[in-house]
Hints:
Blueprint: E1 20-26, E2 28-30, H1 32-43, H2 48-53, E3 64-66, E4 73-79, H3 80-84, H4 88-107
Antiparallel strand pairs: 1-4, 2-3
Zinc ion is lined by residues 9, 11-12, 14, 78-79, 81-82.
Amino acid sequence: MKLSDLRPCDFCNGPVGFCFRVITIALAVVNRRAVQEAVGFHAMGWPLGLTEAMGAHASSGDPVAVAEDNELVTRLFACQDCYATKLSALAVAAEARDAETAAGEGSA
Length: 108
Ligand SMILES: [Zn+2]
């Protein structure tokens, strides 16, 4: 990110400061057909990991598509104050996600 890309906080319109959060919101869509295929293979006793490894859903594309196109992705800037106050539920969810990810990495 360039300095010229910096802009005020999207929540208070104040300066973001030297340390701030960039919140990315991307549209995600689950491919119903790929899910039905995976469920079908699972019903036949295939574990989900095996159906993915064998490309069982290859005929119907990616099982989950996450938008990367700028028109479908929103990036919000949040100063530390807004992140801690106005977005406290988001901050709690992010900490829980980080803890779960760290625990998963620890068990691998
Ligand atoms: Zn703010």
